[in-house]
Specification:
Blueprint lengths: L6 H5 L9 H18 L6 H8 L3 H8 L2 H11 L13 H32 L1 H28 L13 H16 L5 H16 L9
Helix pairs in contact: 2-3, 2-5, 2-6, 5-7, 6-7, 6-8, 6-9, 7-8, 8-9
Length: 209
C-alpha cells in the first residue's frame, strides 16, 4: 500500500510523463467526477480528455488504459479524514468520525457504487478501491476502539467492539439502497448514538471514568 503522503507525486514517478502533480490532481478529480456522474462503464479516455482539455494521447502515454487511470485517480486523491481524530473518549471519537464520514458521503457513496461492480471483475481496481476508501477508515476506527479499551472505557474482550467499523461503514453503504438517501452526518450521528454506543455500553456525550 502506498503511504498516505505519497499522493500524486508517487503516481507520476515514471520518466514518460511531464505532467505536474497539480495537473495530475486536476485529472484525477475529473476522473472521479465522471465516475460519479455516469459510472465506470460510461467512463472513457476521450471523455476525460474532453473534460480536462488534455490530449487523449497524453492520457494513454501516462496511464495506458482506463483501469490504470482509475486506479491512479483513487490512489492520488486518497484523503485521510479519520486518523487525526482523538477527542479523549471513545464515544467522542466515534461521534466525530460519524460527522467526518457523513460530510463526505455525498461524494464517496456514488463513487463506491459506480466502481463496485467493475471492481469485482478487476483485482487491481478492487484493491485500489479498498485502499482509497475503505481500509484507511477501518483502520482508524479500529484504533479508536483500541484506545477506548486501553483507557478502560470498554472491556478488552467485549464482542461488540470488533463490529464497530462494519456497523459504521456498513450503514453508510446500506442507507442509499434501503432508503434512497445518503447517510449524512446527522444520520450517522444518530446511528452511533442509538445503535453503536449502547452496544458498547457507552452514553453519548458522557465522559467515561
Amino acid at each position: 500500500m502506498p503511504s498516505p503522503d505519497s499522493g500524486p507525486e508517487s503516481a507520476l514517478a515514471s520518466p514518460r510523463s511531464k505532467i505536474t502533480p497539480e495537473r495530475a490532481r486536476e485529472l484525477y478529480e475529473a476522473v472521479l467526477d465522471l465516475l460519479r456522474e455516469s459510472g465506470y462503464e460510461s467512463l472513457t479516455m476521450e471523455g476525460v480528455a474532453a473534460r480536462t482539455r488534455c490530449g487523449k494521447s497524453t492520457l494513454y502515454r501516462q496511464w495506458g488504459s482506463k483501469p490504470e487511470l482509475v486506479v491512479a485517480a483513487l490512489h492520488g486523491t486518497r484523503r485521510m479524514r479519520l486518523p487525526h481524530i482523538d477527542t479523549g473518549t471513545l464515544a467522542g471519537d466515534l461521534l466525530e468520525a460519524a460527522r467526518a464520514i457523513g460530510e463526505a458521503s455525498e461524494a464517496d457513496t456514488p463513487l463506491m457504487h459506480a466502481l463496485s461492480h467493475a471492481a469485482l471483475q478487476s483485482p487491481e481496481l478492487l484493491c485500489a478501491l479498498r485502499e482509497a476508501l475503505i481500509v484507511p477508515e477501518i483502520a482508524a476506527i479500529g484504533t479508536m476502539v483500541r484506545r477506548g479499551q486501553e483507557r478502560g472505557e470498554i472491556p478488552a474482550d467485549l464482542p461488540a467492539a470488533a463490529f464497530v467499523p462494519a456497523q459504521l461503514l456498513g450503514v453508510l453503504r446500506a442507507r442509499p439502497l434501503l432508503e434512497g438517501r445518503h447517510a449524512d452526518a446527522a444520520y450517522l450521528t444518530r446511528f452511533v448514538e442509538g445503535a453503536i454506543l449502547p452496544g458498547l455500553g457507552l452514553a453519548a456525550g458522557a465522559p467515561e471514568s
